[in-house]
Amino acid sequence: MPTSYQQETLESIFGLILCGQGNSVPDHCQTKSASAISRFLNNYQWSTRSLIRTVRSLIVKFILDQRKRGRKPTLQVILDLTTLEKVGKFTHLGNLVRVYNHKKGLHIIVMYLVLGNWRIPGLSATLREWSFRIYRGKGTPSPSQLAQKLLNNLPKKLTQNFKIYVLGYTAFGTIKLINNIRKHSGHAIVGISKNRTLTDGRKVSEIKNRGQQVYLKGLDFPVFLSWVWLKRDCKKIQRFVISTKPMKGTTIARWGKRRWQIEGFFKTAKYRFSLHRFGQKTRLGVYRWLILSLVSYLLAYWVYLHLCKSDSLDWFYCAQQTLILLLPHVLLLSIFNQLDTIMPWLHELGFDFCLIRCKI
Questions:
Q1: What is the CATH number of domain 48-275?
Q2: How many C-alpha atoms does 145 have within 13 Å on its Cβ side?
Q3: Which of 70, 78, 281, 345 could disulfide-link 112, Cβ–Cβ 3.0 to 4.6 Å?
Q4: Distance (Å, whole) CA 343 – CA 337
Q5: How far apart are CA 337 and CA 233, in angstroms?
Q6: Is the pLDDT of residue 226 over 80?
Q7: Is the distance from CB of 242 to CB of 193 less than 8 angstroms?
């Protein structure tokens, strides 16, 4: 940060988000005022690009450290769209907040990377932006076109050192996107509609054998078809999946189900790290809030990997431990501010506190 004041504000925002409650808004901050946080996000001229560059370089380094001799490990690249739901008018954000699929909010397409124990939301080859895109509605690039831009910006160091499997739901099963994935030496395992037509005129739903090689209309190479059964409203629903790599039907179905890993990330980012709690008056402020929320998620996940105390991942516990390990002064200042607020009430009840520093 350019100044120590802005550095303190940045740490206060991390402390706010890392409370792990998912309801972090500037008014809840114990160490900085809401107006100070608003100025930091919307007005101050600190370099968002430098923050992204720092985090990106660390991510690439950590991922490449997982590379071992022998076969290239598989890097799962999961694409999905989520809505950060909002209520009210947001005229200052133009067409960013809109209704799509009966939901009003900010609709973002995210690229989520999975490599062994690593879970990484978004990673771009460019240093000026995080790897997500905002869908702006009809007449603008579609979700599949935005996803293609994300894939084109995947760092070359990763595509050269890992086998790339791109996973996505039906909206990403377009001809252009599948061709693009194959062109860049990756494999697509994506959902398709049951009404998609094969070159022989049949519908996808008419295929009865899992793993069967088929030719989709518009593709000049074969793909391999399977399906999964999902529970929706106490009913089983069939979802079709194709793979550009030859696989058994059960293997395709197993890979197809893995794309749902990103749904867990969306829930965690929203309800633990306040991804949907942006309320800034400028696009820059909204963009910065989203980035800081994602960085907070990464910090908590890295602390979890560092501690490695159990296989179960408790995000609230990890967020609290991240505060203790990385920002203890912010946590202490927040606690002291709360004590100042409740101290008169405690005195009325006959309680008193005395802080003593112990020499160790």
A1: 3.90.350.10
A2: 9
A3: 78
A4: 10
A5: 47
A6: yes
A7: no
DSSP 60-95: HHHHHHT--SSSPPEEEEEEEEEEEE--S--GGGTT
Amino acid 30 reads: Q
Enter the pTM of the model. 0.86
For position 125, what pLDDT does the model report?
A: 52
Q: How many CA atoms lie within 13 A of 298 on its CB side?
A: 20
Residue 5, pLDDT score: 92
- List of residues 6+ apart from 208 with CB closer than 8 A: none
User: Where does residue 266 rank: exposed (0-12), middle (13-18), buried (19+ CB within 10 A)?
Assistant: buried
Q: What is the DSSP letter of 172?
A: G
Q: Which amino acid is at 110?
A: V
Q: Could you read off the pLDDT of 159-175 as tens digits, one per residue?
A: 888 889 999 988 898 99
Q: Residue 321: what pLDDT?
A: 92
Q: What is the mean pLDDT of the chain?
A: 86
Could you give the C-alpha distances from 229 to 28, 240, 253, 262, in angstroms and in order?
43, 9, 9, 18
Structural tokens at position 63: 């991922």
How many other CB atoms sit within 10 Å of the CB of residue 168? Answer: 27
- List the chain domain ranges: 1-46+276-360, 48-275
Cβ atoms within 10 Å of 1's Cβ, excluding its own:
16
Pair type for strands 74-85 and 163-168: parallel
Round to whole Å and give the CA distance between 190 and 5.
47
Higher per-residue pLDDT: 230 or 241: 241
